[in-house]
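#structure-requests
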Amino acid sequence: MPKAGSATKKIINDLPSKPREIRLSELQRLASLGFTLSQIALVIGISDRTLDNYLQKDERIRGAWESGKAIAEVKLAQLAFDTAMEGDTTMIIFLCKTQLGWRERNHDAHKIAPQVQIYVPEQMSLENWKQAIAPE
């Protein structure tokens, strides 16, 4: 019968510890599904820091990550575009603002001033003022 810790030791020994052991296709697939680096590191079985180091040092790993993220962006852009083309007004406005640079503005705001008239009565004596405000 194997020792209780031997299964754990085998799993730890099987974890990738070198960049060449990271399956680039798996990294790209996970990135294309929108997984964060932290989530990918967890799935691959390495720390966030180790994955970050690999991304900085190995162009193949960075390329797999970047192409996976690009695939996710294309999928989202296509979904947004399709949604807008189906008539979703909110998505149409969103795409016009983000992709075409449209923005909301009021061209006439500076021309329209509130029309307020303030009536200031003539100066009156204290006695007349008391009579004016006294209840009838």
